[in-house]
Design goal:
alpha+beta, Rossmann fold, 3 domains, six-stranded mixed beta sheet, about 30% helix
Length: about 500
């Protein structure tokens, strides 16, 4: 159900909704306030977690109007609704809770609005400085647990190495200092349990804005940064993985690689190529979730297994070309292979959650030859693909059904899509948004059998920028959060019924 308030009734101060960033932040704040104000579990609103996302559950208009969308479990006995209790729920408890949510203390709303300004200004400044990511001093990167995304209260505050420190002036927070990560190849190294993966997870989450006090308030990454990993068993459809995989013993064409059951190496190769096809300009990789044989082949293994008998070209021989020739940066967590020092622009050592710039020491070590040979001349960008619209419409495969299964899966028509390894999907509402975005792309004719994957995503971005949640709510009234193009593409590519062809065929 929807509760709509015109600007006069909502009574928000104009300053709170003066920009798109402020409207998005204030909408999240209001949803959280309403969730807290609801006196019973029978009233439910999607208020999300630590990210500030555009959600269908609350919208603040350019004129200061407010729309709440929420669900209500009507009380009853068996198949009969208890009328008086239902009337009290909908006509008394709900309006009272909404009124309480809208009675925002001025300092609380101002805090969210100012925070939105600061993060927007920081993202713009980081991009203007040519950086891929930024982590502010004092940030609390560690989370309470794997199921509690709030900051760890007893964690170690982040402090930038002096050699990598940069400063930016923000409109409200003033000068913020922190570690700037430039373009190219960045290694994050260190012993086990010293914070390498924690830093990378903060960067992968840095594509989203966070609520004030999250601890990652001023941790930002390039909006196009994509976390990629190995994913045994996933389907791959017509992906050009030739740069990574060639001359398979089976004779399969790796320029149009298709499998129902990818290995760790082929799934990671496909994930990299699919991210680049969608427009990623930065890749985030953790060796803990990567395929070792796609990451590195050391000198001894090169001597034992000749290159003409090894179909895989390791990433270590391609990341330099990806950066220098194609402008694609890579940030890697690496604790087991020193060969990446040969291609790194900078090396950050994590020691007890404290970063240290060890680039010069790493370059000195890299100057000592290991006997390893480079196994690739360069990286070639993948061929463009065109999607057959009949293979992705939910209605084409039975009764329309689009339902999130947490952040692990998407029920799309009669198909189930496993998205557990798409780690930047942050909550179920985003999973729903992805499914509706794919269905919208089919219904609106953006997936028309002619447009490339990148062109389809461009059209989707344009529509969501213009109409936002309304574009997806036309398909179905649901709790949704707007996804990035990269999570949409990742989900599309994991559909086992997907059919594609190369552009120009």
């Amino acid at each position: 159900m929807a509760l709509s308030y015109d600007a006069e009734t909502a009574d928000l101060l104009p300053d709170w909704y003066a920009t798109p960033e402020r409207r998005r932040a204030v909408a999240v704040m209001l949803a959280k306030r309403l969730r807290k104000a609801c006196p019973t579990r029978e009233l439910r609103i999607d208020a999300g977690g630590q990210e500030i996302l555009r959600r269908s559950s609350c919208e603040v208009g350019e004129d200061g109007s407010v729309v709440f969308r929420l669900g209500a479990q009507l009380p009853g006995h068996g198949r009969r609704i208890a009328g008086r209790q239902a009337a009290r729920l909908l006509c008394e408890l709900l309006p009272d809770a909404a009124d309480e949510a809208l009675a925002v203390p001025e300092d609380e709303a101002a805090k969210w609005a100012r925070h939105a300004d600061d993060v927007a200004a920081l993202r713009e400044a980081v991009a203007a400085a040519g950086l891929v990511a930024f982590v502010a001093d004092g940030s609390m990167l560690a989370r309470r647990s794997g199921v509690d995304d709030r900051p760890l209260e007893a964690g170690v505050p982040f402090a930038s190495p002096a050699s990598m420190a940069v400063e930016f002036a923000l409109p409200h927070a003033g000068t913020v200092r922190g570690m700037g990560i430039g373009p190219g190849v960045t290694l994050i190294v260190g012993g086990g349990f010293h914070g390498k993966s924690t830093l990378l997870r903060a960067l992968e989450s840095g594509v989203w804005d966070h609520v004030p006090g999250d601890g990652r308030d001023f941790v930002v990454a390039d909006r196009s940064a994509v976390k990629v990993r190995a994913e045994d068993g996933r389907a791959v459809t017509g992906v050009d993985v030739h740069a990574f995989v060639d001359h398979l013993p089976s004779g399969d064409d790796t320029r149009r690689f298709t499998t129902e059951n990818a290995s760790g190496s082929t799934s990671q190769a496909a994930a990299v190529v699919e991210a680049l096809e969608a427009g990623a300009r930065a890749l985030l990789i953790d060796e803990d979730t990567a395929a070792t044989n796609l990451m590195i082949r050391d000198a001894r293994m090169q001597e034992l297994v000749a290159k003409d008998r090894e179909p895989l070209t390791p990433l270590v021989d391609l990341v330099r070309s990806m950066a220098d020739e194609h402008g694609v940066s890579t940030i890697l967590v690496m604790g087991g292979s020193g060969d990446y020092m040969d291609v790194a622009d900078r090396v950050v050592l994590m020691d007890a959650y404290r970063p240290e710039d060890v680039t010069e020491r790493a370059k000195s070590l890299a100057a000592k030859p290991t006997g390893r040979r480079v196994e690739a001349e360069g990286f070639r960008m993948p061929r463009a693909r065109v999607v057959d619209p009949r293979s992705v419409s939910s209605e084409a495969r039975g009764r329309q059904k689009i339902r999130a299964e947490g952040t692990d899966g998407l029920r799309f028509g009669e198909s189930e899509v496993d998205v557990r390894s798409v780690e930047q999907i942050t909550d179920p509402a985003m999973t729903t948004g992805i499914g509706l975005a794919i269905e919208a792309a089919v219904r609106q004719g953006w997936i028309d059998g002619k447009a490339t994957v990148a062109e389809v995503l461009d059209r989707l971005d344009e529509a969501l920028d213009e109409d936002g949640e309304a574009e997806l709510l036309r398909i179905r009234d649901a709790d949704l959060a707007l996804p990035r193009r990269f999570e949409v593409a990742a989900t599309l590519n994991r559909m086992r019924e997907l059919q594609v062809r190369e552009s120009g065929e």
